[in-house]
Amino acid sequence: MDFTFVLCGIAVLYGVLLFFDLFFKSCMLKPYICFLKGTGISIKFFQIKWETTIFNRLFLRWGNTPTQWSIWFTWGMYLTLLILPVSVLLLIIALSQNFISTNVAGVYKSSNLVIEPLIPGLNLPASEIGYYSLSLILCSIIHELGHAISSVKEDVHIINVGINILYILPVAYVNLSSERLNALNPWRALRILCAGIWHNLVLSMIAYLLYCSLPYVYTIAFNLNQGIIVTDMKENSPLMGSRGLEVHNVITKINLCEIKNEADFYNCLHRAYVDKRGYCVHADMVHDLDESIPLKYTSNGLDCCDEEKTDNLCFEYVDHNDGVLEIPPHVCLPARTVVETATLTCGGVSNIECSNKLHCIKPMLDNVTTLIKIMRENRPDVIYIGHPGDLIQTITVSSFIPKHWTSTLLFPDMVMKFLEYIIVISTGLALINVIPCLFMDGQHITNCLVDILMTNTPREKARMVATFICLCSTVILLFHCFYTIWLKLV
Questions:
Q1: What is the DSSP string of 342-357?
Q2: For labelling, which of 120, 361, 366, 396 has a CA lying 20 to 30 Å from the CA of 411?
Q3: Average pLDDT, integer, range 184-197
Q4: Nearest to 119 by CA among 3, 1, 262
Q5: Contact, 403 vs 218, CB < 8 A?
Q6: Using alpha carbons only, what angle is made at residue 363 by residues 360 and 368, rounded to the nearest 5 degrees?
Q7: Domain limits, the chain
Q8: Is residue 80 classed as helix, strand or coil in its secondary structure?
Q9: Model confidence over 312-341: pLDDT tens digits?
């Protein structure tokens, strides 16, 4: 289903909910008003909020039980203060990357940005919105859990907790007594303010350890580093057909590039696209199979094959040896026979030459088309002529090859993908929240640090300094985010 259609459907749903909410409130429908007050639900423009005090006693029990919480949050405070200047430096580096990420041809490249806004449908696959939303709500809950427990430890009253859904993005939050928080000693307040960031960092570390260790656990039910398995194919995939790929096929090589895992798969496709090589063949085979016609111009460029010879492909003789040519400069040969027979490649970026008695022929294809040989386990090779991106966009692969059909019930790819999102989002929340920006933890952390460093300065003047720092950082962060999005859109 198209992601835009889903977003439009959600917008319509919000419109219906807001209409009935305003209608029932205007009619003073008592059961509806009592329902909203009893549940803590409120509906606004593209926003649904839920607040509750049901967890307050649980936070009190957790915060007052372990005596190690003080050490835990003190270490978290120190680590958070250490990464504060690192986060600001990364933001400045990311901003500078935006201005140097455009090459001479004017093509924007932002794949190496150290800080980049994640937007589903723009730089995140729309199909992974579920991972994105679940990871975001989990990371924000862990973040706010740190604030809640530390506030109990520092004797700051918790008013309530809640979840705010902004269109499709869920965010958890905790409301604390601002009067009590502002009255605390700056160092005690820092333990509360840094606790959420500290918990995000811990969550990232735990998720990373699981991400590294789970593949070894999965070896009980799956084969790893023995190729990749095709788990799904789109109906419009050009790889489908009687001689094409099928679900559950195990791919071991692309051309002569060996594939052990999913990362190798993408690397081999990239190599096939940028390093287009020819094939080393014997002159006898060329003479026996050549069905070339006089060279002609077509919509796809030069061609030496008859249109009825759909299995044939025009090859160009690219040997650099001087003297008499042993084969014609252009030959029309069966693509499958050439690819399956040739054991050596030639040309390419490294300009490899064929050995004696072999001749280098290269497919006559346009710049974006590649001849790809896909080797499968216990199945005939698949020969595909097209863009390598077709494989990325229309088939889904996995590094986990099940030993038995019941192994698939463990969903290893879903678990690993979820852990990837937790690592990225939790680390991102920690780095962004610690930056001294308005409406973030970094703003309050900066206020406390300025109070500590400027103890002999009037409080109003110290807060003006802190506000100026936060304003500057906020402008830089907003400019970076909007500029990055604008460059991607144009």
A1: ---EEETTTTBPP-TT
A2: 120
A3: 94
A4: 3
A5: no
A6: 135
A7: 3-45, 56-216+416-489, 226-402
A8: helix
A9: 889 988 875 555 567 888 889 998 888 888
